[in-house]
Amino acid sequence: MTAYLITNVSVLGAAPTDLLIRDGVVAEAGTGLAAPDAVVVNGTGLVALPGLVDLHTHLREPGREDAETVETGSRAAALGGYTAVCAMANTSPVADTAGVVEQVWRLGREAGLVDVQPIGAVTVGLAGERLAELGAMADSAARVRIFSDDGHCVADPRLMRRALEYVKAFDGIVAQHAEEPRLTEGAQMHEGEVATRLGLTGWPAVAEEAIIARDVLLAEHVGSRLHVCHVSTAGSVGVLRQAKARGVQVTAEVTPHHLLLTDEKAATYDPVYKVNPPLRTAADIAALRTALAEGIIDIVATDHAPHAVEDKECEWAYARPGMLGLETALSIALDVLGPQWDLIAERMSRAPAQIAGLAEHGHDPAPGAPANLTLVDPATRRTVEPTELASRSRNTPYARMTLPGRIVATFLRGVATVLDGKAVK
Predict the structure, then answer these.
(1) Residues 268 and 340 reside in one and the same domain
(2) Catalytic residue list contains 311
(3) Among residues 134, 126, 135, 132, which one has the least CA distance to residue 154?
(4) By C-alpha distance, which of 346, 327, 190, 340 is closest to 258?
(5) 361 lies in a domain?
(6) Residues 64 and 11 grouped into a single domain
(7) Same domain, 346 and 398
(8) Catalytic residue among 303, 311, 335, 377
(9) In this predicted model, what pLDDT tens digit does every residue of 71-95 receive, in sequence order?
(10) Which domain holds residue 201?
(11) Do 101 and 189 share a domain, yes or no?
């Protein structure tokens, strides 16, 4: 295995130091290190972070390889500074059996760019009618610990309770897509002034908030772990704040686009801005940013949702919801939070790794730690060009936006997956 000597790099914004990566771990840290057999990486001006971990990625394979594959999504993740991603279950066939989750897991291992941890479906076929093979997926080679019908809410409270009870046996988590479907039928965007002006059916914030309120009560009653996907409203933050104050085992995520983009973007009728849950108001964004800084919202998760051209470049009503996110997430975090490196490391690496139970990930670069890390140049600003993205799809809402930060290198267990801003394989 190739050894790497990263010279003069700042670990989480601290004074410059050298890092020697050998045999999959950070072997040494200090000034003036020498290793004649190592490849030297000049870290001057760069910041070393623990490799990023995404709890919410859509890789589309199996079934929609025209939009993304495990390999192309893994490459996009590595270029975004990620060393592990959790792949959502809404594939075709749905990842609701041990066989499908093992297929996704093995494809990730074959790609070798990031650790791909499958998320299993809560219900068979995401239909919300009966529980999927949760135990079999947990016992499979993929060792699934997070279960979600993302894209569909587990709307039946009795079924949701059963799922929460079931996963307790192996310290699992149910990750809920919080959307009361009877309140969002025909909805196209956030219910508010912009929707009224555009003549589009509104998606009320209470549809999200009501499910979160119900589920934290269920999780509290059962004593189980609940994770809330893509929180998007100020009201949801309030529910989470109260639940955490009571000691409920609930964690939550926010996406980069819900931290930056408002429902005003829909005024162009450009389907790239159609997403589930929808873009909300400036007041919601302010509440989400505060909650993220305070830890009421635990992590940033991309909800990377690639779509084929025909599914996005069409009329708004027919376009599928979703945006790309893996290659731009750290830049959005820098834009929103500024260079608060410890906070970024906590929200984008340590906390998601802990929630997902990924023991090798989320470790700050230090002697003895697994060499899963990323190097970022905070001084560089880059313009997002969709044609230059590694993802097979092009539905980025940040096209031609200039964002801070550039990923220079990513290492997975000491193996360079990105060097000088380019994928190694």
Answers:
(1) yes
(2) no
(3) 126
(4) 190
(5) no
(6) no
(7) no
(8) 303
(9) 999 999 999 999 999 999 999 999 9
(10) 51-356
(11) yes
